[in-house]
Write a structure and sequence with these properties.
The model is unreliable at 1-28 (pLDDT under 50). It is built from 4 helices and 10 strands, in the order αααββββαββββββ. The protein has one domain (41-184). It is of the alpha+beta class. The N and C termini lie far apart (83 Å). Helices cover 25% and strands 23% of the residues.
């Protein structure tokens, strides 16, 4: 019987030893590293070009400097800076044009690349009576608008911090699609 307990004791010691060594092997493995979160145009708005995020964004997107602009043509956007070199506006180009690729990221405020002026005005609208949606819907008309370049109609929605540039020069072309979206902070 004593031999039986000795054999059982040896097996218990071996099992304990195997468990302890197994735990050490697991602990010795290096931790998996996650890739750093990509810096987005939203995260660099209202930041100096000298910040780490802005410098990373410009380097990662092959941006080139041109006056007050950082031109990131391969990703379809450009950044406008003020006199203090603070990034104030991101221009997101909706289609290939002017040596820019189409912006592939997500557009702000639920906009999609094929939205028309009519669709944007509906998305930016509100109920006529706040507590009675059955009363109808008011279109989300811009706070300011115009055709500064005589080619595109610009609709500025200050309350959202965006300007929508359409591919038509007229406010009456409700089928005009988005040419670019300007996001300001």
């Amino acid at each position: 019987m004593n031999k039986f307990f000795n054999a059982l004791g040896i097996l218990a010691v071996i099992a304990l030893f195997a468990t302890a060594c197994g735990a050490q092997v697991v602990q010795a493995q290096p931790e998996e590293r996650t890739a750093p979160k990509a810096v987005t145009y939203e995260s660099v708005l209202n930041k100096s070009l000298n910040t780490k995020d802005a410098a990373e964004f410009i380097a990662n997107n092959n941006c080139t400097s041109s006056g007050q602009f950082q031109l990131c043509q391969s990703v379809g956007l450009s950044l406008w800076t003020d006199a203090n070199q603070t990034i104030k506006t991101a221009y997101l180009y909706n289609s290939n044009s002017d040596d820019f690729s189409a912006y592939k990221g997500e557009l702000p405020l639920g906009l999609v690349s094929n939205d028309t002026m009519e669709t944007v005005e509906k998305k930016f609208g509100q109920p006529k009576v706040e507590h009675a949606p059955q009363a109808g819907w008011e279109l989300g008309l811009p706070d300011e608008s115009g055709t500064p370049d005589h080619i595109h109609y610009w609709a500025t929605y200050k309350r959202f911090g965006v300007t929508i540039v359409y591919n038509s020069p007229t406010v009456n072309d409700k089928g005009a699609t988005i040419y670019a979206v300007l996001v300001s902070k």
